[in-house]
Amino acid sequence: MKLIFPVIAALFASTLAVSVGAQTTTPPVATAAAAPVKMAIIDTEAFNDPKNGVKRLVSVYTQIDTELKPKRDEIVSLNTRLQALAQKANAGTITQAESDEADNIKRDIQRKQEDGQKLLENLTRQRTGSIFNDLSTALQTYAKSRGFDMVVDVSKLQNSILLINPSIDITGAFIADFNARNSGTAAAPTKP
Fold first, then answer.
1. Considering the domain boundaries, does residue 65 fall inside one?
2. CA-CA distance, 35 to 99, in Å (whole number)?
3. 24 is a domain residue
4. How many domains does the chain have?
5. What are phi and psi of 54, to 5 degrees?
6. Cα 114 vs. chain centroid, distance in angstroms?
7. Is the pTM of this model over 0.85?
8. Among 2-11, 25-34, 142-151, 155-164, which is the least confidently predicted range?
9. CA–CA gap between residue 151 and residue 39 (Å, rounded)
10. Which of 49, 51, 103 is nearest to 81 (CA)?
11. Per-residue pLDDT reduced to its tens digit, 97-140
12. What is the domain range of residue 143?
């Protein structure tokens, strides 16, 4: 018990010494008032909206979706066959050949899904890159012409902004302006 009091006294003395040492004798420097910042928000996820989004972007996504449909249909067909084999396995009526077929189908489905995902990513990157460059340039021009100092993309800050004044959301107005200045269809994809 006697050991605790010296430790407390030492802590108190060291805290007092640090606090006294931290005090300065020079007066604080006056700082200039910060200029007000005109800020807006935009939700780039709305660019993909089929009804109200960026027409060029929606057109490209529709083309890619159409192009990948046969691959999706093939995977669905394989999945249907795999489910039929699984039902036979559950009923105990599956043959060794069917069991081997099920294993092969599982591998095929996984490979086709991985290949399809890679193809989707490549096609999306290739076909939307120039559109996103145009959108970036157009957004900078749009913001500058309306006097905005900063535009924040709320889709990148998921659940970070708690309360927003809806009047600073420029998403709809920007999309309408971009669509009016740019054609609504993308160039037809070239076959490799």
1. yes
2. 72
3. no
4. 1
5. -75, 115
6. 20
7. no
8. 2-11
9. 6
10. 103
11. 999 999 999 999 999 999 999 999 999 999 999 999 999 999 99
12. 37-181
Domain for residue 164, yes or no?
yes
Domain-located, residue 14? no
Cα–Cα distance for residue pair 164/171, rounded to 1 Å? 13
Q: Count CA atoms within 13 Å of residue 20 on its CB side.
A: 6
Distance CA(128)–CA(25), nearest Å, equals 60
pLDDT in tens, 36-94: 888 899 999 999 999 999 999 999 999 999 999 999 999 999 999 999 999 999 999 99
- For residue 184, the one-letter residue type is G
Spatial neighbors of 94 by CB under 8 A, at least 6 apart, are 85, 88, 102
